[in-house]
Amino acid sequence: MSIGKKILVFGATGEIGSRVARGCVEMGHEVTGASRGINKRHRIDLHGVELIYGDKKDKEFLKTLSAKNFNVVIDTVPGIEDVESAHKYFNGRIEHYFMCSSTGTFVPLRYLPADEDHPWREKTAVNFYRQCERDMFALKLHKEDGFPVTIFRPTNIIGAGRVPLELWGGRDISYFQLLKEGKPVEVPGDGTTLVQSGCNDDLAAAFVKGAGKGKEINGEIFIISCRKAITLNRYLQTAREVLKSSSPVEYLSIREILARRPEVSPGGLNFLAEHMCFDISKAVDYLGYSPEYTVEEGLEIALKWCLDEGIF
């Protein structure tokens, strides 16, 4: 008889949710995956996961799920209304509610490497403030009503299943197509800005680690990433090596890049120009988190996946 927990994973047919669900099964947990059944993107094998179809916005669906006596609920793509619903239907019934946020809540960084104590509750010109508001709401529910929320804040996610970040500040495959064809590409500034990515497999492993922990992690925030940042120059060099690129590199200001590439998002490019450098010690110490991949390795996996899938 299994000694694992009963775990509900919302979005279990997605890139991250499928990895979380499968990882929990491999740890001996009884896993139910909730899905709307419309995902057509990359996912991994869900053997051993009981799939049920419904929308987490549907209150009757949530009411039915809440009666199943889950120990853990995981949502890798929650909105503030989803947190509110989870509190309504699951609080007092579960040990943990895990939700995914982003280190984009912290920028601009005031010190390097930034940790979970870094300021994040005020709106800035570049931070992900809507996620800040959602996270503040979730932590308020924990403080006032004991809602067992734990927040994971990954850095830029990379790996098989998605086009990786490029140096226009988005996920435009055209940048990597230019590299593959040996055509000129741009780098903002002098290329020394720091970037830190985390592989999707490592992010999923953090959720799996958390599911096995006790109430000591409730009400906590954890930064999830690889162990260290690299420069944009090193990031680009890795991509060039994977794609066997001979592209010349031009170092331009943000204004110059936007003038040349009107399709590029100013917000994304300005965000890319901010240092991303984080300390994952808290996740290592509290969760036993141990990322397997570096930024370079995650980028290589992502680009090879794009090549294998014929994306470019």
Structural description of this entry:
- The structure is a single chain.
- The relative contact order is 0.15.
- A seven-stranded parallel beta sheet has the order 3-2-1-4-5-6-11, sandwiched between helices. Strands 7-10 form a two-stranded parallel ribbon.
- Strand 1, helix 1 and strand 2 form a beta-alpha-beta unit.
- The chain is 37% helix and 17% strand.
- Helix 1 packs across helix 6 and helix 7 packs parallel to helix 11.
- The mean pLDDT is 96.
- It has a domain of 194 residues: Rossmann fold (3-Layer(aba) Sandwich).
- The chain is α/β, with parallel strands linked by helices and 312 residues long.
CATH topology of the domain at 6-157 and 199-225 and 277-291: Rossmann fold
SS content category: alpha/beta
The rounded Rg comes to: 20 Å
CATH class of the domain at 6-157 and 199-225 and 277-291: Alpha Beta
Summarize the biggest pleated sheet: 7 strands, parallel
Q: Which CATH architecture of the domain at 6-157 and 199-225 and 277-291 is right?
A: 3-Layer(aba) Sandwich
Overall mean pLDDT stands at: 96
N-to-C SSE series? EHEEHEHEHEEHEEEHEEHEHHHH
Strand arrangement within the widest β-sheet reads 3-2-1-4-5-6-11
- CATH superfamily (homologous) name of the domain at 6-157 and 199-225 and 277-291: NAD(P)-binding Rossmann-like Domain
User: How large a portion of the residues is in β-strands, by DSSP E?
Assistant: 15-25%
Identify low-pLDDT runs. none
Query: With helices defined by DSSP (H or I, 4 residues minimum), what is the helix count?
Result: 11
Could you tell me the number of beta strands? 13
**End-to-end distance, in Å?**
48 Å
| Proportion of residues in helical segments | 25-40%
What's the oligomerization state?
A: single chain
Shape: globular
